[in-house]
Specification:
By secondary structure, the chain is of the alpha/beta class. The chain folds into 2 domains: about 220 residues, Spore Coat Polysaccharide Biosynthesis Protein SpsA, Chain A (Alpha-Beta Complex); about 100 residues, no CATH class. It is about 40% helix and about 20% strand. It has 10 helices and 10 strands. Strands 1, 2, 3, 4, 5, 6, 7, 8, 9 and 10 form a 10-stranded mixed beta sheet that branches. Helix 7 packs antiparallel against helix 8 and helix 8 runs antiparallel to helix 9. The longest helix has 21 residues. The chain is globular. The protein starts with 9 loop residues before the first strand and ends in a 10-residue tail after the last helix.
Length: about 325
């Protein structure tokens, strides 16, 4: 099916907060998309620099841009505000300091039409301030049902748990929103969207440019971010347990345990390390039911309970 047959409006939601040095690049990448049937929703989350004014200037030149100014409430609330006013049949998120390649939305729209997909995800390129680039995601394409796409999200770097490398059917977001006041808000949300899907496609082309800033949210200390991430993973396990999704629960449990190990290795905060170690130890034993986890991985989990190997030398 030709992309010309895809005539749906795509609502592009861009949360903005104090990024005056980067917002031009982001907005230009969206307004210059080869797919033009766009509703561009820029949510100024109480910026105290010139970000809001810059965005208004863009809106005066392009009628597709709608600007929402609101008191600062965080990334989740900004995205939710965009979702609440979006009128397009599809939704795509771009963080205000990132940008997308010119043919991103055209290509994802074409793939959605050809495969009748609910979600189409693209590859991600990390870009640093010095211009260094690295493709972060898998080179292997894939097509899965919703449940298997969640397994892929948890095991491999393709679909990914981030909100912003995906074209979504808008009605998937009915009844869903990002949690207020949390870091790792995507971890609380993306799997719930995928769980609703009949078909998810991953395209490895790295169309999304993920800008690496030390002052960004993800530059926060591991110990500070860890508890929110663990909270998201606990909620995910409960979600699948309540629905009798054994494979998804077991995969979530494994990811939870691996993340506890990661946190233990990556921080010098002795109180946090003891807390995370105790939690890990309480969840892992020879009697723990890891029926869907390979035997070698099960043994590795049990061994790590008694021998906390793998800590980074600079964390010792």
């Amino acid at each position: 099916m030709s992309v010309r047959r895809f005539e749906k409006t795509i609502s592009v939601i861009i949360p903005i907060y104090n990024i005056k040095d980067y917002i031009d690049r982001c907005l230009n990448s969206v307004i210059n998309q080869s797919y033009t049937n766009l509703e561009i929703i820029a949510v100024d989350d109480g910026s105290t620099d010139e970000s809001g004014e810059i965005t208004e200037e863009f809106a005066r030149k392009d009628s597709r841009i709608k600007v929402i100014h609101r008191e600062n409430g965080g990334l989740s609330e900004a995205r939710n505000a965009g979702i609440n006013v979006a009128t397009g049949e599809y939704i795509f998120f771009v963080d205000g300091d990132d940008w997308i390649d010119r043919h991103t939305l055209e290509t994802l729209a074409r793939i959605a039409a050809v495969h009748d997909a609910d979600v189409v995800a693209c590859g991600i390129r990390k870009v640093w301030e010095d211009g260094t680039e690295e493709v972060w995601t898998s080179e292997a394409p894939g097509i899965w049902d919703g449940k298997e796409s969640i397994v892929q999200m948890m095991r491999y770097v393709n679909v990914c748990s981030v909100a912003w490398n995906k074209l979504y059917r808008a009605d998937l977001w009915k009844g869903l929103s990002f949690p207020d006041g949390c870091l790792h808000e995507d971890e609380f949300t993306t799997y719930k969207v995928l769980y609703k899907c009949k078909k998810v496609v991953y395209l490895p082309d790295a169309f999304y440019n993920y800008f690496q800033r030390d002052t960004g949210i993800m530059g926060e200390d591991v110990a500070m971010r860890g508890d929110d991430q663990l909270g998201a993973l606990r909620e995910r396990m409960s979600f699948f347990k309540d629905r009798g999704e054994k494979k998804l629960y077991d995969t979530s449990l494994l990811q939870y345990l691996e993340y506890l190990k990661y946190l233990y290795r990556e921080t010098n905060d002795e109180y946090k390390r003891k807390t995370w170690s105790n939690e890990y130890n309480s969840m892992v034993s020879f009697g723990t039911n890891f029926s869907r986890i390979p035997i070698k991985k099960r043994l590795a989990l049990i061994i790590w309970k008694y021998f906390k190997y793998g800590q980074r030398p600079d964390r010792k």
